[in-house]
Each structure stands twice: as structure tokens, then as C-alpha cells.
Predict the 3D structure of the following.
Amino acid sequence: MNTPLRVPYHRPSIGPEEIESVIETLRSGWLTTGIRTAQFEKEFREYVNAPYAQAVNSCTSGLHLVLAALGIGPGDEVITTPLTFCATVNVILHVGATPVLADVRSDGNVDPESIARRITPRTRAIIPVHLAGLPCDLEAIGLLAEEHGLYVIEDCAHAIGAQYGGRPIGCGIAPCSTAAVFSFYATKNLTTGEGGMITTGDEHLAAKLKTLCLHGISKNAWNRYSDRGSWFYEVLEPGFKYNLTDIQSSLGLHQLRKLDGFTERRREIAAAYGKLLAGCEELELPPDRNDVRHAWHLYTVRLNLDQLTIDRAEFLAMLQEAGIGTSVHFIPIPLHPAYAAWATRPENACPAAMALYPRLMSLPLFPAMTDEQVEYVAKTVKHLTQEHCTMRCLAAAQV
Ligand SMILES: *Cc1c(COP(=O)(O)O)cnc(C)c1O
């Protein structure tokens, strides 16, 4: 029997507006992609200030669609980060290309200097991940892309609401971004249960994504042959079934309108954690930068393991015991059996990511968290660090 946690790791903020809107869509008789998805695409495009937006049924399918639309395939190499969800790497494998791992900086984001060392004549694209909602060094990545003629496909699963260089992440400005792909999975900052969005500034790519998203049936084919009757269609190239439904989009429209409020609350909670955990030498607080706007998707602390008598797994188990849900972002790609054969080769070596991994611990952070819950989590974490602190043990032994 599972008793509910005192502080769950996540709880989505679904209000009466979302619920009413979904019911309205169900009553409308139009369930799949239609006017609500078109409206969601329009409002999303305006929110991130991008010329084009294509709704998809997940971030994973969006990343796959972009790689396919760009013609990336066998013989091509795509550079990404080891500190990501498996989806980022799976899509590269699904198009038949070769994933190449670049190491990370101390903030957990991919290191442009490591990317530069991984570029070969076969490299076609870079997939940076804005880990936890903290933007990557897009300027440096953009310079590399320009110099070597590479595409940049941003994995923005954590980054809706983030800003870089005073602009929203996903605004579609090349060479820093060929396309940006967002996730609306249940735990993400904006959710449709499952869903995603691709934004781009490239008109040709946008048209290709639209066709490939729905079996490769061209809208032009409809128009061209409409005189034959509404039953007629032609498949111009074999595509995918990656469209977002109007049920999901009606949810997303309301989530998007609330997003700035959600982000503000996330920032408040992160600041409260920062204050409450300050001075706790057994852990390092999550990185932030003044020149960007952090989306605060995750609040990932780093344990100073040399100052603790317990490891991360024991720490997580104790938090669970205290009724606090936690997570780890992420298990590095080389540690998964499915990838080990290629990902552990020297050319993919990522010592910084591997050293960071055992220290990573994501605490609950969601807009519906109460101040009392934030204080309880911080108090419990602080208490555990003090109780299992090496220095204190040494000091106590000396008395
Ligand atoms: C959640 C996540 C994805 C996958 O998103 P889906 O919408 O579930 O497909 C991809 N990359 C990262 C970094 C993620 O956290």
C-alpha cells in the first residue's frame, strides 16, 4: 500500500479553465487536430516569438520529425549531451545516424569546447539540452554551427519560459537554432498530458514538418485535387503520425496563458530553497546566471559526497522515508545497457558528466507547492546533511 507523500515530487496545476475547455472540446464533436490546435500553435509561436510552430504529440516525436525533415540519416553524426533523457539519443538512432556525446560544464549543460573537439566531416547537427531550464551557451554553439555548417536542434523539454540574450528560448534565430522542440509531458512546466511543439524560423523546414507530421499528406495535395472530391488525397512522401489532438491543445491553450505565473512561482520557490539551504556546506545549490532567464523546471542540488557519510541513493531513500518525492536528472547515457557499446568508447568519454552524476538530486519544484512544503523539504534536507556530515562526525569523535 502506498500512502501519499507529504510532498510529492510533482503535481500538475490543472485548473477549472483546462477542465471546462477539454469538456467543451469533447462536446464539440471535433476531437483530433483542428481549430484548437491551430490556435495553440498561433499563441505558442507568439509566446516564444518564433515565425513558425508545429504542434506534435510529444517532444520525442518532434525531435525525430526535425531530424527526418532535415534529411539526417545513416553516415551522419549528431552531437548531444550525456546528461539527458534517453529520448534525445533514441531519435538520433531512429533515423539511422550516429550519436556522439560531448561532455558537460559544471552547470550540467553541454560544453561548446567539447562539442568543437567532437566535430568531424560527418557531423550534421548538434542537439543541446537546456538542462533544468538553464539555457546552454547558445552563442558559442551557434558560432560552431556557422563555422562548420551544422544544424542546431534545441531540446527545450525543460526550457519553456526561459530566455537567452533577452529573447525567449525557441524564437528560431539561426545559426543558434534551426529548430527548438518543447515537451508538454505531464511533469513539464506546461502540460497537455502528452504533447510537444516545434518552433523554427525556417519556412521551408516548417512546411516539411507540417507534411511529415501527418503521414506525408500534403495540404497542397488537398487543394490541387479538391475538384476530384473531398475523399481524395495523395501521400507525397512516407510520413509519421505525430499530430497533437484538439483535446490536448484545449488544455495547452490555458496552460500557456498561465505559464508566466507558473514560471514566477517556480522562481519564488527556487529562491526560497536557496535561502533556506544557504550555508549548508554538504551540498551545492543549482547553478543560475544573470545573463539568462532560468525556467526552473528542476531544482537539482549537488551533494558534496566527500563531506557526507551517506551516498545519493541513501539520501534519496531517507527523503522518501520522510514523505518527500525526489528524482535524478539524469542517469548519463553511457550507463544505460542499450547505449553502453558505443557510448563508453573513448571518443564519447564524458568524465565531467560521470563525476557529476552521483551528486545529482532533484527536489520537488512545482507551482502548486505550498510555502510550508518548501520549508519542510529544505528543513529535512538540511537535517539529513547535518546528521550524516563527515566533519561533524569527526568533530564529535574528538570530543
Ligand atoms: C521529457 C524529456 C524529453 C521527452 O519529452 P516527451 O514529450 O515525453 O517526448 C526529451 N528530452 C528531455 C531532456 C526531457 O526531459
Notes: The two ends are 44 Å apart (CA to CA). The chain has a mean pLDDT of 95. Residues 58-60, 84-85, 87-88, 129, 155, 157-158, 183, 185, 196 surround pyridoxal-5'-phosphate (CB under 6 Å). The chain is about 40% helix and 15% strand.
